[in-house]
Write a structure and sequence with these properties.
globular
Length: 131
């Protein structure tokens, strides 16, 4: 299958780019101004990114959040990372930046089937795991 992020993004769609990332408008936005930060390389998981790529990504996120909050009347920005097998078919690792407003009911519309995680086991793994 062809990756739409590798093959389907036209140059005119790219709003901003760095050496390793491109920024485009989401094609099915949750909110006006909903952006995607897409890795230029075909990574499927954030764990594949080097520390320098992660630093570049966070600097880009910070830059975009500053633009939203300085130049637009947003109250904040939600950052949602998609990676691994949960992503839409034909895509790769990317970040959603969604402008947010007080009382925008963002979380009200999120409905998921709950899958319980044993919290004591999670705490144990968090405390024991080393990079």
């Amino acid at each position: 299958m062809t990756c739409i992020f590798c093959e389907g993004i036209e140059k005119k769609q790219i709003l901003l780019q760095t050496e390793n990332y491109k920024v485009v408008l989401d094609i099915d936005p949750i909110q006006s101004g909903h952006l995607l930060i897409i890795s230029k390389q075909h990574f499927m998981d954030v764990r594949e990114l080097s520390d320098s790529l992660i630093l570049e990504l966070f600097k880009l996120q910070k830059r975009i959040i500053n633009i939203f909050e300085k130049h637009f009347s947003v109250d904040g920005v939600s950052v949602i990372q998609n990676n691994g097998t949960i992503m839409d078919e034909g895509t790769h690792f990317h970040i959603h930046l969604i402008p947010r407003y007080k009382e925008d009911d963002f979380w009200t519309h999120q409905k998921v089937d709950c899958h319980p995680i044993l919290i004591p086991e999670l705490v144990k793994q968090l405390q024991n795991e080393r990079e």
